[in-house]
Every structure is written in C-alpha cells, then in structure tokens.
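Subject: sequence -> structure tokens, single chain

Hey, anyone have a minute? Need the predicted structure for the following. Not urgent.
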Amino acid sequence: MTSVKATAVEFLDETAPVGGFTVREEPDGRLTFCYVCPCGCDNWRCLPITTGQKVEHAWLWNGDRTLPTLQPSIRHLGQCKFHGFITAGAWTFCGDSGS
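Reply:
Had a minute. Here:
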C-alpha cells in the first residue's frame, strides 16, 4: 500500500502539495474538506464533512486539522481512479488506485 502525508494548508492553490488539504466553513455553515488528490493527478476535490455523528451524503471527520481522519473511504470516479482512506493525517491507497 502507498501512503502520502496529509499536509494542512491555508489555501488550495498551485503551491499546495500533493495530499494538501484545508477545511472550509461554507456560507450556509456546512463544512467541506478540500484537498489536492493524493495520487498526484493535481485535481482538487471538496467533500462535505460532519463531526460527531455520520449523516447521509457527508464524510465523518474527527475534527483534527493536524491529523485528520475521514470515514468512509474516498473513491474518485472518472479520469482519476484514486481510492483510499485518510487516517491520522496520512492518505492510504487501496489496491491499484492512482492516475
């Protein structure tokens, strides 16, 4: 299995590292976890997240901005085929994921 460090950044831009992430509060109060795909394809993605209890259509986040954990796994469809987990601040790839 391949692993990439999840690095907290203030903003996602062209200087953000592979696996870099930020947590944003949207104007409506929802939280999103935005990141540079850990496979190296340079795509940026955002996921709806929640803390405390799992809710439909959102990933459960442990609330830690230094060593984040999200559940369940993250699977990209389309050109990038990343599938993996972010646990205790590390992205872990499942199987043959990657670009």
